[in-house]
Amino acid sequence: DAMVIQNPRYQVTQFGKPVTLSCSQTLNHNVMYWYQQKSSQAPKLLFHYYDKDFNNEADTPDNFQSRRPNTSFCFLDIRSPGLGDAAMYLCATSRVTSNQPQHFGDGTRLSIL
Amino acid sequence: GENVEQHPSTLSVQEGDSAVIKCTYSDSASNYFPWYKQELGKGPQLIIDIRSNVGEKKDQRIAVTLNKTAKHFSLHITETQPEDSAVYFCAAGGGADGLTFGKGTHLIIQP
After folding, report:
1. Closest Cα partner for A102 from B66, B34, B78?
2. Cα angle vertex A42, ends A21, B111, to 5°?
3. A102 in reach of chain B (CB within 8 A)
4. Dmax over Cα atoms in chain A, in whole Å?
5. Beta bridge partners of residue B99, listed in sequence order
6. How many Å apart are CA A74 and CA A67, to the nearest integer?
7. Whole-angstrom distance, CA of residue B4 vs CA of residue B23
8. Do the chains contact at A99 and B101, CB–CB below 8 Å?
């Protein structure tokens, strides 16, 4: 059974039109992460939540926001998607941030028209 | 911050042969080193990990070695099979910043 679930698997949006990606987990983990992965590249961390504490990576554009309304759900909001934001977006969870495995969902592939 | 280098970027081996992927890291404070396998259209899946108090760990055909002094760690896959074909990522971490990933190795198993 999938433990980190991302919806939708594929998302198409228009240039500049806000889009929201969702992630849910059944592991009851404290930490939830959002990564951006472009073709043939490593996942790049955008931000993470430790419980309700939000931690933004220094180079994450302001265009990317996140919400975590409860332990199980986390959302990635892209306020005004540009062509360069087309990528796979991966959600992951871990019990704590250090020394623990991260469990990934299968991602949402975002296309920008 | 942490920097992880991974080599090679592409590795092609004959089915049944062994495959070795190597990574180096820069931050001596890192103490957790997982390896992920990513198949096309899927998220990375943890296949093995090692912590800095251990030099080697094995799980069936997969093993990982860690040299803390030299700051490098390696993934070894023996008796490779077609289903081993995928992209493999190493990562290093241990602090509050989570994991830093290598750039990945595309492993191709030739029949």
Report:
1. B34
2. 110
3. yes
4. 40
5. B93
6. 6
7. 7
8. no
The pLDDT of residue B57 is 95
**What is the predicted pLDDT for the residue at A35?**
95
CB contact under 8 A, A40 and B104: yes
| Preceding amide of A8 cis, omega within 30 | yes
Residue of B nearest to A44 (CA): B101
In the predicted model, residues of chain A with pLDDT beneath 70 are 1-2
What average pLDDT does range B14-38 have in this prediction? 96
Residue B57 with chain A: CB contacts under 8 Å: none
- 8 Å CB contact between B89 and B102: yes
Query: In the numeric block, which tokens belong to residue B83?
Result: 């289903």
- Cis peptide leading into residue A43 (ω within 30°): no
CA B5, B6, B11: angle at the middle one, nearest 5? 160
Instruction: Kindly give the pairing relationship between strand A87-94 and strand A31-37.
Output: antiparallel
CA distance B106 to A13: 30
User: What span, in angstroms and rounded, lies between the C-alpha atoms of A98 and A1?
Assistant: 25
**Torsional sign, CA A44, B27, B32, B68:** positive
Distance CA B82, CA B38 (A): 14
